[in-house]
Specification:
Blueprint lengths: L2 H24 L2 E2 L5 E6 L5 E9 L9 E7 L12 E10 L2 E10 L10 E7 L4 E10 L8 H40 L7 H12 L1 H6 L4 H6 L2
Parallel strand pairs: 2-8
Antiparallel strand pairs: 1-3, 3-6, 4-7, 5-6, 7-8
């Protein structure tokens, strides 16, 4: 092998290595794990699917497109769905250029659950895609443990307070009645026996009744 042939071989090796390195650097790709991605959704609620691609050199992004395809397993053609919107955004961070495509559902419906949603990254170097499938989530969420505990404490304390207030009102209602009569000047002709009967009857009616006794006869006789 003469000098010219050696030069040609070295030139081809260097060129091939540079092209390989360049392809590895600028080749765009979709961020995330490959395969089917399942997204939990609630019927009647909004939902957004995110698909993000990354590339190194910004001068190659003009030849890159990121979009969504919506398909139904029972049909061969692509479909269009009402209430679904695509939004594409760009972002540059640490020398890398990111492009994100959002698929926004205003309100998730039952018909949306029947379709597959594929994010497609198209470029002159490669084509990548990622499929998303919606999975229905139960709308009846469990009550958090701390919320349940707090509610039980509040209910218990409230019950104790109400019972205490009721007991206090029962114990002191005679005094309230007597105070009212004293202030209004009513029933001033009550005798001592009648006052005693009134006090005892209001304080112990349940006890006397449960014993089968007439409160008036017990206090004042026949």
């Amino acid at each position: 092998m003469n000098g010219l042939e050696e030069f040609i071989v070295v030139f081809i090796m260097v060129l091939s290595r540079n092209l390989t390195d360049s392809e590895e650097i600028i080749q765009p790709n979709i961020i995330g794990h490959d395969g089917v991605n399942y997204e939990d959704v609630i019927i009647g609620k909004s939902k957004t699917l995110f698909c993000t691609a990354v590339t190194i050199h910004s001068n190659t992004t003009d030849a890159i497109s990121l979009y969504w395809l919506m398909t139904n397993p029972s049909e061969t053609n692509f479909i269009e769905i009402d209430g679904v919107q695509e939004i594409l955004t760009w972002n540059i961070s640490e020398g890398k250029k990111y492009m994100t495509s959002e698929l926004q559902f205003e309100l998730v419906k039952d018909q949306h659950m029947e379709n597959n949603y594929t994010c497609v990254l198209q470029s002159v170097l490669a084509k990548r895609n990622r499929t998303f499938i919606l999975r229905k989530k139960d709308n009846n969420t469990d009550i958090p443990k701390h919320a349940f505990t707090t509610g039980m404490i509040i209910a218990t304390v409230s019950s104790i307070v109400f019972v205490s207030i009721g007991a206090a009102c029962f114990m002191f209602r005679i005094q309230i009645v007597l105070l009212y009569r004293s202030l209004t000047g009513k029933d001033d002709t009550l005798s001592a026996n009648e006052l005693l009967y009134t006090r005892c009857y209001f304080l112990f009616p349940n006890l006397l009744s449960m014993a089968g006794l007439n409160p008036f006869k017990v206090l004042f006789g026949d």
